[in-house]
Amino acid sequence: MELKPVRSVLYMPASNAKAIAKARILDCDAVILDLEDAVGPDEKVDARIRALEAVREGGFGHRQVVVRVNGLDTPWGREDMEAIAASAVAPNAVLAPKISTAGDVHAYDALMASLPPATQLWIMIETARSIFTLPAIADAAQETRLAAFVMGTNDLCKETNARLVAGRAALVPQLCMAVTAAKMAGLAIIDGVYNELQNAAGLEAECRQALEFGFDGKTLIHPNQIDIANSVFSPTEAEIGFAKAVIEAFEKPENASAGVLKVDGKMVELLHLEQCRRLMAVARSLTR
């Protein structure tokens, strides 16, 4: 399956036509047209109409277009899903909020039955209960179109009364558990937002932490955050060079049965070969 980069995933309020138009020219990997948190109750219906019009009009180029719907326990969630299902052009993905159980995944998936198979289901991991049901939620991907976890770190902190400070110590266990569950099921996983718009150093540090934990990218709330996220989550020239060297070493006929090799002064095993192949696949996906 082709790898689609999700280094930078930008939330845009679907109620804001100017923001949607601007998203078509920004260098993010994906745009989330948000019908949920970014839209007030009185604007929900108009935002839904505007989001689906934007999807039909297209023009987003390489960017994946994702629509975040309202929860099915709200007055708008089911109508959001029905409108998307009835639309002539589907988004690349639907993002479902506040998923707590595998049953929640199946509920959204059932409402996507008429959509093209390529339309994915992304889900928000942002409730306290979801952390304790992560394996079952991830396993739901075997029977649904679930393709990605998106962390809702602000909501997690709200539910647990944790403090979202530099280093995110209170969230480290939850973040690592979510990454492990996602990778277990072969899903992409995207980190939560960084709230300090003028703190570039803080954003970079949090992106690097997420990269170290195993995240594939970060959700963003402002265009000025895109370049940092793209830079941090892109393989470096040194990483690409080493990956090529490892792959070439294992491909040599004399190493056909080797399980361990020495490359550039480092011991590498077959598991490192798999990691290097994945890194090269990611690097190739960024060539556009």
Helix percent reads 40-55%
Q: How much of the residues is beta strand, in percent?
A: 15-25%
Number of strands: 10
Global geometry: globular
Please count the helical segments: 12
Q: N-to-C SSE series?
A: EHEHEHEHEHHEHHEHEHHEEH
Q: Give the oligomeric state.
A: single chain
Mean pLDDT, rounded to whole units?
94
Q: What can be said about the biggest beta sheet?
A: 8 strands, parallel, barrel
Rounded to an integer in angstroms, the radius of gyration calculated over CA atoms is 20 Å
The largest sheet has its strands arranged as 1-2-3-4-5-6-7-8
End-to-end distance: 17 Å
- Helix-and-strand structural type: alpha/beta
The residue ranges in which pLDDT falls below 50 over 5 or more consecutive positions are none
Report on the architecture of this protein.
The chain is of the alpha/beta class and about 290 residues long. Helix content is about 45%, strand content about 15%. The chain is built from 12 helices and 10 strands. The strands form 2 sheets. An 8-stranded parallel beta barrel has the order 1-2-3-4-5-6-7-8, surrounded by 6 helices. A two-stranded antiparallel ribbon has the order 9-10. The protein is globular. The mean pLDDT is about 95.
